Task: inverse folding
């Protein structure tokens, strides 16, 4: 299984929206509604931000949202804040019990 | 609040076996709702799923590790473990233990991570 494809970097100004894409195949992203997103600050463990494509765990700000179309999933931050600057990883179920992560996107708040 | 605490050597020699344990507190390791995962992150790189185990003992592994990885569980100790055999420098990484709940993709609790370096 190959890693999901994410852009290496993304950026936006405070208050602006930004969207990060995650492209897979029909065997992972396109085949299941099991895509999650994780935020990772330097030196810290990842934090679950979105699961099952669109669901948000309690405690995650509602400016974070997820979506999917075909083989591409997306994470949108609707109004960037300084604390959103971090690395973001997507993850998808790939069948037969397997999971696959994306390569990660570094989000910079300008 | 579920907490995951990893333990194990931080330095392993090439060709030897990497062994890590993860202790679970604040929640049940026996619940059928959860799988218990190992995930690693090479220095400066992205996340790589290694595999997971259910309390029943069923396991799933990333095919890329080519059978070098084994995950086991000891419910009496509230602990699950990872072994990776025949390690090389390419196995140097931060290793995380974590909990999968609900859907396959939902990794809701993570340990703090443990750096394991493979070096002579």
Result:
């Amino acid at each position: 299984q190959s890693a999901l494809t994410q852009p290496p970097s993304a950026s936006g100004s405070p208050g602006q929206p930004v969207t990060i894409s995650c492209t897979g195949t029909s065997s992972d992203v396109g085949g299941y509604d099991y895509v999650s997103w994780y935020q990772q600050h330097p030196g810290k463990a990842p934090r679950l931000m979105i699961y099952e494509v669109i669901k948000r765990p309690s405690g995650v700000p509602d400016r974070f949202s997820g979506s999917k179309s075909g083989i591409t999933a997306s994470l949108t931050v609707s109004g960037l804040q300084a604390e959103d600057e971090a690395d973001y990883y997507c993850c998808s179920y790939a069948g037969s019990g397997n999971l696959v992560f994306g390569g990660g996107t570094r989000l910079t708040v300008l | 609040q579920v907490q995951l605490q990893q333990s194990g050597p931080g330095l392993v020699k090439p060709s030897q076996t990497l062994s890590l344990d993860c202790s679970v507190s604040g929640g049940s390791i026996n619940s059928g709702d959860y799988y218990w995962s190992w995930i690693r992150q090479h220095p400066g790189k992205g996340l790589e799923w290694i595999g997971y185990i259910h309390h029943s003992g069923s396991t799933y592994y990333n095919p890329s590790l080519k059978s070098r990885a084994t995950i086991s569980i000891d419910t009496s100790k509230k602990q699950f473990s990872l072994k990776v055999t025949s390690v090389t420098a390419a196995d140097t990484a931060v290793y995380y233990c974590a909990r999968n709940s609900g859907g396959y993709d939902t990794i809701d609790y993570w340990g703090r991570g443990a750096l394991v370096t493979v070096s002579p």
Notes: The first strand of chain A starts at residue 9 and ends at 12. Residues 5 and 23 of chain A are 5 Å apart (CA to CA). Chain A touches chain B through 27 residues (CB under 8 Å).
